[in-house]
Automatic annotation (TrEMBL):
This is Glucose 1-dehydrogenase. It comes from Candidatus Cohnella colombiensis. The lineage of its organism: Bacteria, Bacillati, Bacillota, Bacilli, Bacillales. It is an enzyme of class 1 (oxidoreductase). One of its GO terms (molecular function) is glucose 1-dehydrogenase [NAD(P)+] activity. Keywords: Oxidoreductase.
C-alpha cells in the first residue's frame, strides 16, 4: 500500500497506459480522479473500481476545466497530493507534411495541458503540505527522430518544464519528475503507419521488446510514493535501453 492516503489526479486515464496507472494506484491504496476527454470511458473504469475512483471529463487544454477537476477532486477526497500528467497524442509526419493544425493540436494537449495541470494543482498540494507531480514525457523528450518534430517539441518542453517546476516548488515539498517511456504496448502504438514503424524499432531495442504498460506504471508509483522522497527535477527513462547508446 505505497500510496495509502494519497489523492491523485491522472489525465488521459480512460485507456492504455493511463488506465493501468489508475488500476495500480488504487491497488496501492490511493484515491484517484480518473480524468479523460472521453467521459463515458472514464466513468466505466471508475465504476468498475469502486469508491476509490471518480470519473471527471477533462480537456487538458482548458484552464477552466482544470479548475473544476481540482475542486471536485478536493471535495470528493481532500487536497490533491499526486498529479500524473499522462494525457498525450502523437502525430508523426515528415516536416513537409506536418501542418500548423497538427503542431498546434500536439502543443495544446502534450505541452499546454501539462503546464495547466501543474499550475492548477499547486494550491491544493500546498494545502496537503506537499505532493508529487509526475509528467509523462517520452524518449523523444530527450532525443528525437524523423517524423517526430511536433511530438518531440512538446515532449522536450515537458522535460524543461519539469526541471523548472521542480526548482521552484521544492520549497513547498512538492516534487516534480518526468518519465520517459520508449515503445509501449498501447493503443497509440497500434495506429496505422505508427505500428509499422514500431515493429522496426523493436529490432534495435536491447531488450528486444516493447514495454508492458504496468512496467511504466510501476515507475510512476515509485515517483508518486514517499519511496522517492529525495528525487525531484529528474528524468526517469523506461525504454529497454533504446537510447542507451545515444
Amino acid at each position: 500500500m505505497k500510496l495509502l492516503n494519497k489523492v491523485a489526479i491522472i489525465t488521459g486515464a480512460a485507456q492504455g497506459m493511463g488506465a493501468m496507472h489508475v488500476r495500480k494506484f488504487i491497488e496501492e491504496g490511493a484515491k484517484v480522479a480518473v480524468t479523460d476527454i472521453n467521459e463515458e470511458a472514464a466513468k466505466k473504469l471508475a465504476d468498475e473500481l469502486g469508491d476509490s475512483a471518480i470519473a471527471l471529463k477533462l480537456n487538458v487544454s482548458s484552464a477552466d476545466n482544470w479548475k473544476e477537476v481540482v475542486e471536485t477532486t478536493e471535495k470528493s477526497f481532500g487536497p490533491v497530493n499526486v498529479l500524473v500528467n499522462n494525457a498525450g497524442i502523437g502525430i508523426f509526419k515528415l516536416l513537409e507534411d506536418l501542418t500548423e493544425a497538427d503542431f498546434r493540436k500536439t502543443f495544446e494537449i502534450d505541452e499546454l495541458g501539462v503546464f495547466l495541470g501543474m499550475k492548477t494543482v499547486v494550491p491544493s498540494m500546498k494545502r496537503a503540505n506537499g505532493g508529487s507531480i509526475v509528467n509523462i514525457s517520452s524518449v523523444d523528450g530527450l532525443v528525437s527522430a524523423p517524423t517526430a518534430i511536433a511530438y518531440s517539441a512538446s515532449k522536450h518542453a515537458v522535460t524543461g518544464m519539469t526541471k523548472g517546476a521542480a526548482a521552484e516548488l521544492g520549497q513547498y515539498n512538492i516534487r516534480v519528475n518526468s518519465v520517459h517511456p520508449g515503445v509501449i504496448e498501447s493503443p497509440m502504438a497500434e495506429q496505422g503507419d505508427v505500428a509499422e514503424v514500431i515493429k522496426k524499432l523493436e529490432q534495435d531495442i536491447p531488450l528486444r521488446r516493447r514495454a508492458k504498460t504496468e512496467e511504466v506504471s510501476n515507475l510512476v508509483i515509485y515517483l508518486a510514493s514517499d519511496d522517492s522522497s529525495y528525487s525531484t527535477g529528474a528524468q526517469f527513462v523506461v525504454d529497454g535501453g533504446m537510447i542507451s547508446d545515444l
